[in-house]
Amino acid sequence: MADDSRVPIPTLTRLATYYKILGEAQVRGVHNLNSAQIEAECGISAAQFRKDLSHFGEMGKPGVGYEVAKLRARIATILHLDRTQRFALIGAGRLGQALAAYPGLNDYSFELTALFDTDKKKIGRRVNGIEIEDADGIPNRMRELNLKIAVLTVPGSEAQKASDAAIKGGARWILNFTPAHVRVPENCMVRDIVFTQEFAVLAHYIEE
Amino acid sequence: MADDSRVPIPTLTRLATYYKILGEAQVRGVHNLNSAQIEAECGISAAQFRKDLSHFGEMGKPGVGYEVAKLRARIATILHLDRTQRFALIGAGRLGQALAAYPGLNDYSFELTALFDTDKKKIGRRVNGIEIEDADGIPNRMRELNLKIAVLTVPGSEAQKASDAAIKGGARWILNFTPAHVRVPENCMVRDIVFTQEFAVLAHYIEE
DNA sequence: CTTTGTGAATGGATTCACAGCA
DNA sequence: TGCTGTGAATCCATTCACAAAG
Fold it and tell me: Are the C-beta atoms of A55 and A83 separated by less than 8 Å?
């Protein structure tokens, strides 16, 4: 067994996929799966799957496979999906509203707790039961609600400002859905989600 | 200079970032940039930037840097951003509508050309000037419009069906925004955009 | 006999460091 | 001198292949 303390990011990403698949298997009433079946389910190779799990000690039975419920619970612990992650969403445009209502986030125990926008016309309206609040209040409100996670769905030009406000309110983890590069202090972590770039990558492969 | 024919995907992703930054520099009237300034702008290291470009031959002047307009045009050619990429969007839910209206796609020359949904109540409505059509018509319509690119924003449970219909209509490149694994024939390329996983990855790093 | 867990081998990608050009 | 372009070195990730476990 390897060291649990520094798991490669590609492994973490795949763990999230296994977690989802195991949940679906549970719903179907499947109690055991082996690595070959996981590969058939999600396209990640059996060897890769076993290697990923090897970071965390033995979890399967040779000749048999993996107990679905047990493995899923173990992954939940590793990814911290066994506790609710309350977050603020900054930017209630189309993308922000889509995220606010996205069911997949609940699967990973993320809970939208506050929603901000600068547009006065939007303030007071509700999305998925959460009221849109004035972005001017971000630092105070985030501190009041003890929110440490901010998700940015503002235009790229506003990303740094939104991030600064969130950090002023005590944020330490930021998911950046904008194409802009955001600068944060040492004790703060940013993860960029770069879906627009994926269009450009695809374009490179398009012929004729 | 290395071979142009097989560029690593991480390099392609970063090229899209450089392309965006160079566009912004152009707007600001900046004519030259060096690799250190690129690093300051987007956080990608100067060495990485130069290595990325080295796949395509010499583009800068020692002691000076890079000519913004020229480099940007060169990247556009590499990524095929110098031609319009017409695409079909399948799934007019919140995420689909957000994408349909997302300005960033125009920056990469992507043009929404058809929009499909299974929900009879949505059919006929317009999003960003494009009428929502019945998903039953996907194969015929895509062939009629000669669309080779499909973007999937349906629920995961519908992803395979949507992909099959698009391929029946002649699609060869698919961007999959669903969390589901999609199987396609050999001559077809899929790129998965896995933003929900990013929440789980972030959660792993969240303390207390 | 089947399938795991993991060292060893391979294959990439990033970083270093410097020769060479402007 | 300042900055590029690139081999060499390093670091990381994936795949292979097999001994050990049930």
Answer: no
